[in-house]
Amino acid sequence: MVDVIGKHLKWCRENGMILSVNVIDNPITLAQLKRMFIMGGTEDISKVFNSVEEADRHLKKSGF
Questions:
Q1: Number of H helices, E strands in the chain
Q2: 59 and which of 16, 20, 28, 64 could share a cystine (Cβ 3.0–4.6 Å)?
Q3: Residue pLDDT, tens place only, 48-61
């Protein structure tokens, strides 16, 4: 699964993705997600938050 999503993130980045916002509260899932960011080359644009509210504030602050 890590490989599949990593490849998808790479495709997204190559096709204009400018921000990736993720809400995760599980340390195991977070570790896997970070590996996917590295595979997809999205570490610099991927943000992880503990709650939807935090993610929403970040998106609004970023103009979304």
A1: 3, 2
A2: 64
A3: 999 999 999 999 99
